[in-house]
Write the structure tokens for this entry.
Amino acid sequence: MDRKVYVGDLKIEFDEKQAINEVLESGRISEWKKVRDFEKLFSEYIGRKFCVLVNSGTSALIAGLYALLLDDRFPAIKKGAKVITSPITYIATVNAIVHAGLEPVFVDIDPLDFSIQCDSVEKLLQNATPGEYCMVLPVHLMGYPCDMDRLNALADQYGLVVFEDAAQAHGTLYKEKNLGCCSLLADFSFYIAHNIQAGEMGAVVTDDPMLYRMMKKLKANGRMCDCQICTRMSSVCSHEDPDPEQDRDPRFLHDVIGFNFKTTEFCAALGLAQLKKAEENIRIRQRNVKMLSERLLRYDEDLQLPLFSSDISYLAYPLILKKGSTVKRKALRKFLERNGVECRPMFGCIPTQQPAYGYLKEKYAGNLINAEYVGEHGFYIGCHQYVSLEDIDYIAQVFDAFFGVKNEPLKG
């Protein structure tokens, strides 16, 4: 049986084609109405006042961190200051911290939901010198929420800013609120496998107008003008030239050193089409997680199955080989791939298992026991809205064949 079940997928259906055609007919490919519409609707969806759309989730992280660095309301956030974060995450989280000139500091994770351990955060802060840490950046990996109430309480106690990495958690509820509402600011990614998809696009949400304006400047190379009119390339600007004797245009004056993080109308158009389907897609992902776990429960001596909750918007279906299992991850992953079930290893414990951060290995070796175990023994398969009931049956057959329950004609 030839079948391919992808980790992530995007079907270009009528709504997506119509949205792209509208962009083509408008003659405007760079940021314009679709970008503004998505920013408005996504901020409303999450429950925040402001949204800044950028070209990737990585750019969203960098824009948010630089906005904090440039804001004199947060004097503790300065070059060299320490940021507490997760060792199990896509490497972009930590790359952004380093690119911003900040120092990542890692604490271990809960092995069941991959959230950073609040007890470890508290212990770190209790033993710190005043002002040593400036921020906690929790990662809601695979859609699972961190304990934001406790992290916010610790941040308040020790004077830290909280910046949520919600790149993989669009639509996850935390105490009846969307993740992304539980901190000063939060980033999201709309990469192909994510819960709301646009190919390549990211966003930062916040209720803080000063951070919002600074991030709009930063995404456009530090442009002095951040008004809606100018971002639509109008000849009219509401900003005054600081030197009215000169013939200058605030759209081409730059008062901070920024980046080119602007996105396109095409990505925003795809995002708008997907946003309309978000709640339905989340429900399908939840159904798929529940059904996969029902079918794979017979292997729970070997496999740690994902926790299920109707509040979680699942990025993927994560599996961890349990301690004592004789199954090797590489062998299982190769078998799945050969039989059309695409899978990925977990991202790896960044300071001990990612070569780019090898300079941290000695410092953290043996201190992040759960993260190192998950990084070595964890992997995930797809549970997205395009995974059908027939696909779930097929995935179960492939696992059955690997574990020898059934003698299916697969490519073992």
